[in-house]
Amino acid sequence: LGIKFFAINICFLVIYQLTNVIISNILSPKDVTIYNVAYKLFFLFNMIFIIILTPYWSAFTDAFTKKEFQWMKNKVKMLEKLWLGLMLTIIAVLIVSPYLYEIWIGDTVIIPASTSFYMSIYCVVLSLCNLYTFLLNGIGKIKFQLYIYIISCLIFIAIAIPLTKNYGLNG
Fold first, then answer.
1. Predicted pLDDT of residue 103
2. Given this model, what pLDDT does residue 145 score?
3. Which residues contact 136 (CB under 8 A, 6 or more apart)?
4. Residues in the chain, pLDDT under 70
């Protein structure tokens, strides 16, 4: 089990750390800054959602062992509603993001609206994935996640460079 979690974390690390290397090498270090500023603004909501989800990991484990599937189903529905609220919050932040960037970093770095848009989509999708990841962790379906992360890592490596070359930072 520990090796599976280790492999998942390595894949996670490859995807998230290789992004900066690809951006820096194909575009410029300035683009890494642009990417990371947008990432930090929108990922804040994902972090909040992870904090909310964390106690459910062990709760799902307990409910699964006790075969309390209806409780699990109810909690997942509740968390999905919470995710919808998070999604609406991210949309609101996207709308006001130019003002937030201005307050936060001034005019030292200009974050394109398209970068904020794609980062907001990424964080909305990632937060939904995290909901189901915590459920899968709780019920012990780690092998499935391992396969998904390995496939995701390979796909990322295969498409990140051409997308960045063809579409710049938005790629």
1. 93
2. 84
3. 142, 144, 145
4. none
For 77-97, give one letter per residue: b (16+ CB within 10 A) or e.
eebeeebeebbeebeebbeeb
Q: How far apart are CA 79 and CA 47, in angstroms?
A: 15
Determine the pLDDT at residue 70. 97
Distance in Å from the first CA to the final CA of the chain: 35
Query: What's the per-residue H, E or C state across the chain?
Result: CHHHHHHHHHHHHHHHHHHHHHHHHHCCHHHHHHHHHHHHHHHHHHHHHHHHHHHHHHHHHHHHHCCCHHHHHHHHHHHHHHHHHHHHHHHHHHHHHHHHHHHHHCCCCCCCHHHHHHHHHHHHHHHHHHHHHHHHHHCCCHHHHHHHHHHHHHHHHHHHHHHHHHHHHHC
